[in-house]
Amino acid sequence: MGLRWYHYVLWAAFIGGMFVLPEFVSRGTLRTLIFANFLAIFAISWDALSGRTGYISFGHTFLIGIGAYTTAILTKRFGVPVEVSIPLAVIATMIGGLIVLLPALRIRGSYFALVTLAMMELIYQLVQVIRPDLTGGTRGMSGLPTLTRGAANGYYMSVSLMLAIALSTWLLMRTRLGTALWAIGMNEDAVAGSGLSPTRLKMIAFLTSAFIAGLGGAVYIHYLGSIAPRALFDINFVFTIIVAALIGGAGTIVGPIIGAFFLTFLLEYLRPWLPGAERYMVYAGLALILYMVQPKGLASLVTDAAARLRRAP
Amino acid sequence: MLQVLIQGLLLSGLYALIAVGFTLIFSVGRVLNLAYGAYLLIGGYVYFHFAQTLGLPKFAGVALAGIFGCAMGVLKYQLLVKPLKGNHVAIEISSLILAVFLQYAVVFAFGDSSKILLPIIPGVERVAGAAIPYSNLFAAIASWIILIALWAYVRFTHMGRAMQAVSMDAKGAAISGIDANRVNMTTWAISGTLGAIAGVFFASYTQLYPGMWVAPLIVAVAVVIVGGIGSIMGTLLVAHIIGFLEVLTSSLIAPELRGVFTMVLIIAILVLRPQGLLGREEL
Amino acid sequence: MSAALDIKGLVKRFGGLVATNEVSFSVKPGESVGLIGPNGAGKTTIFSQIMGELRQDAGHIALDGTDISHLPTPRRIRAGVSRTYQVPRPFSDMSVAENIRVGLMPDSIWQMIRYGPNHDRESELALSVGLTKEQLQRQPSELSMGDLRKLEMARTLATAPRLMLLDEVFAGLTVNEIAIMSSLVQSMRDDGMTFLIVSHDLKALEPLIDRAIAIDQGRLIADGSYAEVIADADVRASYLGAA
Q1: How close, in Å, is residue B9 to chain A by CA atoms?
Q2: What tens digit of pLDDT does each residue of C122-135 get?
Q3: Is residue A2 a part of any domain in this protein?
Q4: Domain presence at residue A165
Q5: Contact residues, chain B to chain A, C-beta under 8 Å
Q6: pLDDT score recorded for residue C243
Q7: In Å, how far is C103's CA from the nearest CA of chain A?
Q8: Structurally, how many domains does chain B consist of?
């Protein structure tokens, strides 16, 4: 995989830094960090599919929602232990994702984005009316078993999950598979013209994305202890995930993490000035400007600077 | 039965008006304007502010909504679409961000809670036990007039025909000396105006709230997908299919499910017939 | 011994337009055949059908005696045929080496993950088409048209074809670059590669081919030695008619 010494050093520093962080910050900040971790997981999931292959998913919370609802229903209605329900939720997400994907794979470009958007609205409406005794209908469910108690434990759990996902996705994307997925985003026909099946590659990207989304969604729900359809299947939630990945830098692993932390803390720091939802105005405006100025994201500012340093005598 | 028919016709007229602005952009610029729903949002609030809060005449309120929409269309083209030079993914993503920005700009200016628009024309007509507000009737008639005007504009004016040419073959149009920049800008302006005016009607149909842009966007998307890229007549036809589907679903099955079949239709058509039901590519 | 490429009764219609009309011909192993004809004659459409990028409405395509008419593009490439494009289309954000890497990849996800890239093979391919070691880390946007065509050749060669389809390989090249490209094709011919070449530059094409096939309005109008085909009355008329 072409790992260099500085890769080990940087990852060790990053992981070490994340683990000692609770010693230096307040409880409130810790809760913000937890949300940033989950957002980073979702952004990595989105990026594994859309950032790489250029197939933009506007309904990514569809996947997160399958994972979340599966484990919520299993634990709440059938008393399945969390250790069993989370793996089942991940499997359900991957299968659910595949059922959508198999037909959607034929669709290119903008239309793929539309199918995913329609899918999200569809599941939002269905969840509320079909078997509300299972899903909790419009109000969702509360009192779900939680995995951890206290902010510090919640932080360690979320950060471990985020780092594990980040590291394994990073390693996976450094292989030739990552290169091939990236190639699809640039020119799908030329990938087929190189003797590789774009369909199979897209399927792998989708399954990777669904795995991460399902896992993240399921654990997230057991951190919150409740689930509500509008909070999940919401275009603003999708928006936050996409913006996190893009602001940080699509097609990288560090990018979505940087983006997620940047956005979460931006919202937190705006709170004293703008207590209500209008904070999102600043956030969206900033996101728009950043995206227009540097579509490759914040991560590219870092790598560009590093490249310039290396080139300097 | 008569009730379903009338409600279906009224809703379909409105849907056609909502969808046509979106179709125009998709057809001429080949861009999915995900911020289109936000034109409706802004249109609704502009009308609310001027006609209801400041008490200007209602007609002036609608006109101002149209002017705001027009300005937004032009600004979006100049500041967003043009700099991104045909990078569709980037345009779509930045459109989505813009829509969310506008949603919260509205929250900032008007607050989070929903507003009730007073009917444009007060009064209710009773037909076969169904209450039909004059406002809805007016909205449907206005939709029809606007659609016919637009159709005539595209058919018979120089600019309209240039739009047709660009939508059929952008490169060929450029070679034959059509100023694509002007055509695109005009299209964005018209689309913005139509969207904002549709927003006034749509808001008086349902209610005015900051998140109201998503539902009409989905309707517009559905119409475009089912109808195939951008024919005005196709838009009209499909708007009626979707409008009646919704009215039938909510009166025969369950009101909560009204959107489900629209969604199923979108997905089924995209998967089975990606070129759309009618599959024509001209305006 | 079966033909390297055997095409029988190929038909492709676009609405009312017949782009390929009952085209049949074959190419022997090791042979190099030129495909000529005026603009819009259907040469590129034939390439696209051989590669499976367009599906024929009727007819059969066989590679080394195996019918590939209904295989998807990637499987045709595995069967040993590969093409270049009139307008080179590299992976724009990737380096030259990475571009070649994609061509070298096995069609097995597991092997892609398990084994790293073969850097030696990448540079070997780049050098074999006349790119330099320094250019390996360049972006396609920094390359000249001649070098872009070389990259395209390298990417095509990476899939280890036995039959190569070259579409307008000389277009946009300087005289100097044409000479380089020409000797590259020549040396590959000497190594036994089979070619089907489309070119408008007949002067550059002539020395590279054993045989010529002329197409006009989707129909095959002449098949024979270059001199015969060029002297053919129909061929002369088709070129004049188009001009």
Answers
A1: 24
A2: 999 999 888 988 88
A3: no
A4: yes
A5: 32, 34, 80, 83-84, 88-90, 92-94, 96-98, 100-101, 103-105, 107-108, 112, 210, 214, 218, 221-222, 225, 254, 256-257, 259-260, 263-264, 266-267, 270-271, 274
A6: 43
A7: 5
A8: 1
